[in-house]
Amino acid sequence: MSATPATAPAPATQPGRSGPAPFSLYHPTVARLTYRALLSRRRALFLFALPALLLVMATAVRALGGADDGTAKTLLSGFALATMVPLTGVIAGTGAIGPEIDDGSIVYLLSKPVRRSTVIFTKLWVAMGVTMLFSAIPTFFSGLILDGNSQHLAVSFGVAAVVASVAYSAIFLLLGVVTRHAVIAGLVYALVWEALIGSLVPGAGDLSVQQWALALAAKVADPGAVTSQVGLPAGLILLVAVTVGATWFAVSRLRSLTVASDE
Amino acid sequence: MTTLTLDNVSRWFGNVVAVNDVSLTVGPGVTGLLGPNGAGKSTLINMMGGFLAPSTGTVTLDGAVIWRNEQVYRHIGVVPEREAMYDFLTGYDFVLANAELHGLPHPAAAARAALSTVEMEYAAGRRIETYSKGMRQRVKMASALVHEPAVLLLDEPFNGMDPRQRLQLMELLRRMGADGRTVLFSSHILEEVEQLAHHIEVIVAGRHAASGDFREIRRLMTDRPHRYLVRSSDDRALASALIADPSTAGLELDLGERALLVQAVDFARFTQLLPRVARENGIRLYEVSPSDESLESVFSYLVAA
């Protein structure tokens, strides 16, 4: 190594490179690192497995029983919106940042002149995109397979899955920033709260992303075809409030993130 | 001129004080942060790198506070101790991503130059997960150098490296220091620091124990009282001959162990005295061993000094 020349000795401040980093909602490099990390880890298999399962089930139901709106609603509401969308949100939302914080590689992102808010926003877009790709789009297509968008069920549940993807991504990204047990916490929320308590205990539904999203689905579908425990205005306000609040809190926590040392 | 300044910095975690009222200045050239494991070196480096807020005091780079100031990273390169990187990327993709995150005008050229500086071009196309420890360390270095920072912070960079990799990295850091960069690295191994650093800061149990040129610190370390355990054919006669010389400060005859415990104050003189006295008195030396050469005892002496 001794014979090679050193890099140009120019450790002085370079003109035109000072001043605060511009506020930005997106950084392409952060996005690339995030989606490559999401899709290269083993848990990414779940991302493919869940929608594949839904589409197989929809095809089988249609082939065996024919087009039936009741069965379509049961599958789209009970499995797609209540289980698949939140689970995908957990994988994409926590996976977009949690592993980097756990193993310390987040240092390479944070030791750069990039605003922490830019890091969070970019990771949020990626988590949303992945969640929609692997849950909302399959939900729409399985609706088409089940009953050919009768009563606008396919479109309404597709729209519900899209808005639920947005909220879940923000919530689970925040969990990924604040706790090392983000996946467990996310699974408990997704499976116990949303899928079980949300559908059994009437009051709990008011605080369920799934019910807020259903309020929108009820508006899109034919009257009476889809019902929600919350009204549309309340559902929309809560969706926006939770998404914005979770994102703001995630930015604030990442700004103060302490990187643990091994000592 | 780029200077890192710690001003009365303390950091505690709950009830544990990791860093206790440390004030020091790190300027251009290579500085070694020396101390036993758990002394607080990583905590200090994390505060200098902006990954940890001081509980009290300030950490600044040329007057600018480092904590929560991502602009300082235009001037700082960080080589963390932890192994984790984006293992699914190739070495080149990883360094390129770092260049892009710095907003460099020509990220690809910068990435190639940094990889060439650490001599990793030959493996740049391989995924990081296939790299050895030394290769990882070099790619970490490349990622920290890609924007040609004025300050380079390295946490235990030699850990787990084989001797050849160690020499290569030392040579590289020496060059960085000679270029006028401020290079700070931590280590718990005296010889590493001595070979590389022109300036040493010693940290023991969270406190700043010593600071200065390595020769001064080496002298402090060699001038401290040394303890030896000596076994000979006539311990009693040897003891009486040794105590007559001013290089010996204390003697103890351990009859149970059948050994002589000697405390020497003048290291150089004592090492010449002992064999001469033995020969003159016809005493055979069976064993001469230092009894307190552990690094911890060296450090605790420095703290007391």
From TrEMBL, chain A:
Residues 1-13 have a biased composition (Low complexity). The keyword Membrane applies. One of its GO terms (molecular function) is ABC-type transporter activity. Keywords: Membrane, Transmembrane, Transmembrane helix. Residues 1-20 are annotated as: Disordered. The chain crosses the membrane at residues 44-64, 76-98, 119-141, 153-175, 182-201, 230-251. GO terms for cellular component: plasma membrane. PANTHER family: INTEGRAL MEMBRANE PROTEIN-RELATED, MEMBRANE PROTEIN. This is ABC transporter permease subunit. It comes from Streptantibioticus silvisoli.
TrEMBL record, chain B:
It comes from Streptantibioticus silvisoli. Transmembrane segments: none annotated. This is ABC transporter ATP-binding protein. Keywords: ATP-binding, Nucleotide-binding, Transport. Pfam families: ABC_tran. One of its GO terms (molecular function) is ATP binding. It comes from the Bacteria. Belongs to the ABC transporter superfamily. The keyword Nucleotide-binding applies. Residues 4-230 form the ABC transporter domain. The keyword Nucleotide-binding applies.
